Amino acid sequence: MRDESFVERLRRNLRATGALAYYIGVLPMLRVPTLLPFVFATPFTILFILFIAGQRAAFAYGLAGAITMTATQQGLFLGADLTSLKIEHKFQSMVVASPVSPFTYMFSVALSELAFAAPAMAVLAAIISYTTVGFGLLALLEMILVIVLTWMMTSSMGFFLSTYVLNTRTAFITVSFISIVLSILPPVFYPISTLPALLRPVAELIPTTHSANLIRSVMGMPLGGSEILVSWLALPAFTLAFLSLALLKAKWREP
Amino acid sequence: MPSPIVEVRKLVKYYGKSDVPALDGLDLTISKGKIFTLLGRNGAGKTTFLRIATTQLMPTSGYVTVFGLNVLGGALAIRRRIAIAPQEGRPLWTLDAKDHIVLALMMRGVGHSEALNKSKRVLETLELIEVENVRSEDLSGGMKQRVLIAMAIACEAELIFLDEPTIGLDPVSRRKVWDELIRLKREEDRTIVLTTHYMDEAEALSDELAIIDRGRVLATGSPSEVREKHLDAKIRIDVANGFAQEELQAYGKVVRAGNLLRILTDEAKAQEISGEALKRKAAISISPVSLDDVFVELVGSDIDRDLPANNTTKPVKGGSIYER
């Protein structure tokens, strides 16, 4: 069999990406739309509590938190879904024994997760644009970039996790735990300044702190200039680190 | 002599810290354009071998080449030319039969309209066309299994691995699958490696087969070669009544097969016992020996054998996905 040219390989990878994202994410969403509320459930519940119990400022923090949490959760759900595809369906066996690369597989299924999150994201973005004065196209693009970086980072975590976990139940429990650690405990729904000084450096080590910071800056909420710069450096760095971990240390072929 | 497409030499596999090898020096040669069957009990090492040959699992030692490429270094090139239907796979519940096949084809770079056309033919062949738009959650177990087989055979892979493909299929569906595998071999010169513990399936499909147990090859060759080489007896007699086990021992080797006493013997002894059975009005049936008898002879006698000694080979550590 002759070697593939670059163009053939690119075309094959694009088709594989499109097919995996469509058949694993978009089509199930269209066929079973009742699955969508599960994506909305947690972030919108927290947002609702902040809306009822808090003031206007708390609601704004809630919006930034909800959008960060949705992006985070969808990336992490990838870990649980890939584990199910591997263990329950043996689908990953078929994929490994095919020309689909691990990156293509991870990216495609992660896209399918993003498709599921898209309606929730759209609702949140609409609320933000309605409630934020001067929220323009540039702010929207910035917000999309933060969402994409957060989704790529947590998807890498999810993919890495799925290649090590041996059963679906463990995967779901682990993902739920990491989701709490990344999106409820750290200053995602509240400002870092409300944390005791001792805990702030710890919070800075959690990537989603920076995601939430950047969403808040897009929404025009008060943040120090250096804080924004640190977050713009930290979030891509965390994303790159977790992407490298997924690509270099995930177990695609089992030892 | 057809050229080998898969060669396996001294293949050893230990899982994790286990002292018991899943494969223990396996040697095999699989020829191009043939149907090759791996026969063995549960846990014999069939799936482990398939997973190594399909580049999903690293061996501990020994080597496997597929299309002349080592599975360790040539995985990327091998994966473009193989397909697998894994054991106990399950279709995705929100997709229908056609979606699965189109997905399997598009994953390999086939365009959407071409994938749709190809899926039609496979769906017709495996009698899934009537349920092409039915979601897999609503399909019967046998249909689900056929969807997985269809995904593997729809891809125009030169070498197809099927891990216990007909488990759960009714006899008619099994025949359909057999017919399609034989057609793929004859008309498209594809090589098929399948695992099974159905003797009739091995007998009906295999050009060559290997009986493996505890990770070792016990017999290999065509079904007739294996029968002739590993069993002296040519005739099998099943005795339902009229004889005591002790008196049957005079006619050949006697084994119990459910409620029957089975004698493995030669033609002269078969004539003798059939005469005696007529006199006694005893129910017996006479047939040539089958793979089933060889299998029981080779594997059945091995059941109580001690497990292999502790392994001395250190397991190979898995590397990054870039070793793919």
Fold and architecture overview:
The complex is a heterodimer of chains A (255) and B (324). Chain A is mostly helical. Chain A has helices at residues 6-31, 36-53, 56-87, 91-96, 102-131, 137-164, 168-183, 200-204, 207-218, 225-249. The longest helix of chain A has 32 residues, at 56-87. The radius of gyration of chain A is 19 Å and the shape is globular. Chain B has 2 domains: 4-227, Rossmann fold (3-Layer(aba) Sandwich), CATH 3.40.50; 232-288, Alpha-Beta Plaits, CATH 3.30.70. In chain B, β7 (159-163), α6 and β8 form a beta-alpha-beta unit. In chain B, the strands form 3 sheets. Chain B has a 6-stranded mixed sheet with strand order 6-7-8-3-9-10, with helices on both faces. In chain B, strands 2-1-4-5 form a 4-stranded antiparallel sheet. Chain B has a 4-stranded antiparallel sheet with strand order 12-13-11-14, with helices on one face. Chain B has helices at 46-53, 75-79, 97-106, 112-125, 141-154, 171-188, 199-205, 223-230, 245-248, 267-280, 291-300; strands at 4-13, 23-31, 35-39, 61-66, 69-70, 82-85, 159-163, 191-196, 208-213, 216-221, 235-239, 253-257, 260-265, 284-288. The chains are: A mainly alpha (255), B alpha/beta (324). The interface between A and B is large, with 41 and 52 residues.
Within the largest sheet of chain B, what's the order of strands?
6-7-8-3-9-10
Number of helices of chain B: 11
- CA gyration radius of chain A, whole angstroms: 19 Å
Overall structural class of chain A, as computed from helix and strand content, comes to mainly alpha
Which two protein chains have the largest interface (Cβ within 8 Å of the partner's Cβ), and how many residues from each?
Answer: A-B, 41 and 52 residues
Structural class call of chain B reads alpha/beta
General shape of chain A: globular
Strand content of chain A: under 5%
The CATH fourth-level homologous superfamily of the largest domain in chain B: P-loop containing nucleotide triphosphate hydrolases
Choose one word for the global shape of chain B. globular
What is the number of beta strands of chain A? 0
Distance between the termini of chain B: 32 Å
Helices and strands of chain A, in order, run as HHHHHHHHHH
Query: Oligomer, anyone?
Result: heterodimer
Number of domains of chain B: 2
The whole-angstrom Rg of chain B is 22 Å
Largest sheet of chain A: none
